[in-house]
Design a protein that fits this description.
Elements (H helix, E strand, L loop, with lengths): L1 H7 L7 E3 L7 E4 L6 E10 L4 E6 L3 E6 L3 E8 L7 E5 L6 E9 L2 H15 L5 H4 L4 H12 L9 H15 L9 H5 L4 E8 L5 H12 L6 E3 L13 E7 L3 E2 L3 H11 L5 E9 L5 E5 L6 H6 L7 E4 H13 L6 H10 L6 E12 L9 H13 L5 E4 L5 E4 L9 E7 L3 H13 L7 E7 L5 H11 L4 E5 L6 H11 L4 E6 L2 E3 L4 H9 L4 E9 L5 E3 L2 E3 L5 E3 L19 E3 L6 E5 H6 L13 H11 L3 E12 L11 H22 L36
Parallel strand pairs: 9-10, 9-11, 13-16, 19-20, 19-22, 20-21, 24-30
Antiparallel strand pairs: 1-2, 2-7, 3-6, 3-8, 4-5, 4-7, 11-15, 12-16, 13-14, 13-15, 17-18, 22-29, 23-30, 24-25, 24-29, 26-27, 28-30
Helix pairs in contact: 2-4, 10-11, 11-12
Length: 690
């Protein structure tokens, strides 16, 4: 067998070792596979029904526990190791079969064609020959790519998470204690039925869901009862005709309101329900996320607003001659609240009637938002985004501020030249800039010559700072020397792709409530490298939507909509210089190389600023090419030390990202559901103490 394996390149399960240094289950071949085509076969047993297998971070396949799964893979000439990762698991798998079998060229073509003809909607026998092999290979990979699969289906989530949670906490018994009930003030709910009220069947379906509510410390007011301006014990429940409340909705909401007497607005998660009663398409939401609400009028349909705030919101709209529609009312009501008065309850209480083709936004909702912002002193233009949602054009002042672009580098002058050339080529529409390049001990003659030429240019400074690489300290010094009102931190391996990207980020960063602003970064192959940072992924943090195609909409349109996040990467980050200095810049002692940007953003959030993802600034990131991956023992020790420092400082925060849902995976960056039963409590966007 050993001789056969040596001559054929066959690799069996015993040839793989578990990589204990990886957060997710990963196996590595003891001897890397030779370049060529292989058929990968996997058979695993796991408590998680569906997971995703990935060879060398690129070629993947959905895996089903107890089932044998196969796919073609190609090992390139430059592959130094052969790694197999398993994504989406919530337990330790048992892998019975993990096999790489070399394939001749003719069989590769036959297997690929068979898969495409069977599963790809664009492929027919008569058109197969019209497509090149390269096109077929791309389509084959897209067909099997992870964005085409939900690793945990919603039906499975309902069965394994929602139902057990409801069974463990029977709502009928929540208020059986006479002593406890005596200390509670009953909450009044008034139902605001909106939408197509002339459709009697839909209205009746909605009214029936209200009449079937489980009892609790609340009462539903009759429709004719008049509400008082200062009534803080009555809450308006907004229901669109045809939509339904879950039976436990009002009992759970009343309990939350009792526990948070200062609350003014409450919203919960939701899904869609078909005419036949099947629930699907869940919308798991973040805690209060103002910029996402501005970008997405479908941020929530499940709104409960305290009566006095609702009345004030309607009065503000009436005074401007605007109609009291749900989006308008919610905009005004949330503006009347402090952030900690707006509560998100991460439970699915609202079932929307499925309406295929329903637009996510319109010119009407864009106009409503623009008028709202104008009433509150923000003169900006709002347009309807082509893929849904709103595009808000925050203006730059006239004249625009100076932006100090700061880039740390070491050797690899070709990367730095590419970066700076792209900035020059796509500088149209951007504010004025100065460039500060920090040279951390370059020794390559070509790089030194290029840096010497840069020093001769106007508005360019080159700081010579040799020594051990300390990204945080290098940038801190450069920011201190910067003359700009804004600083734009950039890696030397980032490449601009379109004009106006810096103007867009700068306009966001100048908003007084905004902290750090991050860009949409792509890998050279056009997939997502960064679209904001999610806390808790892999134990610390990960990049949202990583590896999705650039044209993908992302979870709930997030790849196309500006929204708040706990952190963004410093590979391209714009922030006001005064804010950078206010929170003390990067922590160069505890986070010299790793996590300094995440720690910085969390300190901004703790100080009350909102960090923001700016999807309209798109750049290419050739990730860490000048430094390379941390492979030495010293680098690994440094990574582990800084990782532990993050846990020590932000441990509680890392496990409760307010801008992420507790029902989405902490193992993966693709915002898939997780099978994890955890206590759900109402939350705000405020950070718990570090």
């Amino acid at each position: 067998m050993n001789l056969l394996k040596r001559w054929t390149g066959l690799r069996l399960r015993e040839d793989w070792n578990w990589d204990v240094g990886c957060q997710r289950p990963t196996l590595t071949l003891r001897v890397p596979a030779r370049p060529g085509w292989y058929l990968l076969t996997v058979h695993l047993q796991s408590e998680t029904l569906r997971s995703y297998g990935l060879i060398n971070g690129q070629q993947g396949r959905i895996l089903v526990s107890g089932k044998r799964r196969r796919r073609l893979v190609h090992i390139g000439q430059r592959s130094q190791a052969t790694r197999f990762e398993i994504l989406g698991l919530n337990d330790d798998p048992q892998i019975a079969v993990l096999r790489l079998v070399p394939q001749p060229w003719w069989r590769v073509r036959r297997l690929m064609a068979a898969k495409l003809l069977r599963l790809h909607p664009a492929y027919r026998k008569e058109s197969l020959k019209e497509r090149s092999f390269a096109q077929r290979w791309r389509d084959y990979n897209r067909l099997l790519s992870r964005q085409n699969f939900a690793l945990v289906g919603y039906d499975e989530w309902i069965e394994r998470v929602e139902v057990p949670a409801l069974e463990e906490q029977p709502l009928q018994n929540q208020f059986t204690s006479t002593d406890a009930a005596a200390n509670l003030v009953s909450v009044n709910f008034a139902i605001w039925l909106w939408g197509q009220r002339e459709n009697e069947q839909q209205c009746q379906r909605t009214i029936d869901s209200v009449s079937k509510q489980i009892g609790g410390a609340f009462q539903i007011l009759p429709p004719e009862q008049q509400l008082l301006d200062e009534d803080k014990h009555t809450w308006i429940v907004f229901l669109q005709a045809g939509d339904q409340l879950a039976p436990q909705a009002l009992a759970r909401c009343s309990a939350v309101i009792q526990a948070h007497p200062d609350a003014g607005v409450l919203y919960a998660d939701e899904d869609k329900i078909s005419p036949r009663g099947r629930r699907h398409s869940p919308q798991f939401k973040p805690a209060w996320n103002p910029d996402l609400f501005y970008s997405d009028p479908h941020y929530s349909h499940c709104w409960l607003i305290r009566a006095d705030l609702c009345i004030r919101a309607c009065e503000a709209l009436n005074s401007e001659g605007e109609s009291p529609e749900l989006y308008n009312i919610a905009l005004e009501a949330t503006a009347l609240c402090e952030n900690d008065q707006i509560l998100h309850l991460p439970e699915v209480f609202y079932h929307r009637l499925d309406q295929p083709g329903e637009p996510r936004s319109s010119s009407h909702t864009a106009k409503s938002l623009q008028q709202f912002l104008a009433r509150h002193g923000q003169n900006t233009q709002v347009s309807h985004h082509r893929t849904g949602g709103h595009l808000i054009h925050w203006p730059l002042p006239d004249p625009p501020p100076l932006v100090s672009v700061i880039i740390a580098t070491r050797d690899r002058g070709d990367l730095l030249r590419c970066c700076l050339t792209s900035l020059a080529e796509h500088g149209q529409g951007n504010p004025p800039t100065e460039l500060i390049v920090i040279d951390n001990g370059s020794s390559e003659p070509e790089t030194l010559h290029y840096l010497a030429n840069l020093e001769q240019q106007e508005n360019v400074r080159v700081l010579r700072r040799p020594g051990k690489f300390n990204y945080a300290a290098l940038n801190n010094e450069a920011v201190a020397l910067a003359r700009g009102e804004l600083v734009a931190l950039m890696n030397n391996d980032v490449e601009a792709t379109h004009p106006g990207w810096l103007a867009t980020m700068a306009a966001q960063a100048l908003r007084p409530e905004i902290g750090a602003v991050g860009a949409k970064l792509l890998f050279p192959d056009g997939t997502i490298q960064h679209a904001g940072v999610l806390l808790g992924i892999g134990g610390i943090a990960g990049h949202a939507h990583k590896y999705l195609a650039a044209e993908d909409e992302g979870y709930q349109l997030r790849l196309n909509l500006a929204h708040n996040l706990s952190a963004v990467t410093a590979a391209t980050l714009v922030v006001r210089k005064t804010l950078f200095e206010e929170v003390g810049g990067f922590d160069a002692i505890n986070f010299a190389v790793n996590y300094n940007d995440v720690d910085f953003c969390l300190r901004l959030a703790k100080a009350g600023y909102r960090n923001l993802f700016c999807p309209d600034a798109v750049l290419i990131h050739h990730e860490s090419k000048s430094r390379g991956a941390p492979t030495s023992s010293d680098a690994n020790e440094e990574w582990y030390r800084e990782r532990q420092a993050m846990v020590n400082r932000w441990g509680v925060v890392l496990q409760a990202d307010p801008y992420y849902s507790p029902h989405l995976s902490l193992l993966e960056e693709n915002l898939t559901l997780t099978i994890k039963i955890s206590a759900t409590t109402a939350r705000t966007s405020a950070f718990p103490p570090a």
